[in-house]
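Worked problem 6 (solution included).
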Amino acid sequence: QVQLVETGGGSVQAGGSLRLSCVAPGYTRYEYCMGWFRQAPGQERQGVASIKIGGSTRYTDSVKGRFTISLVSAKNTLYLQMNSLKPEDTAVYYCAADRPPCTGGLEGYEYVQWGQGTQVTVSS
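Solution. The predicted structure is:
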């Protein structure tokens, strides 16, 4: 079974940056969909950013202008560049993927393949 592997999490101070990576063999093709989600302790999973390859990207309002989702198909890798990090960005971040037909939205049920998650901690 294909596994998605996230790396790049860590601890930073508020205002800092991190870049998350997700290696996703087989899912970085045209019209496939991929996304980044996060879950903080005691909170529901939240869609952060998504991309329909060859199509559009989406971001949840709280990260617009700070986070950027991107893809390097040749490396089978999805990225999430996170700038101007805030303590409220602290969470476990998950990569998710789905085959076409897919919508590339920010709802977890839209994705069938998930990674194990990587912890991001932002201190004030």
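Discussion: The mean pLDDT is 95.
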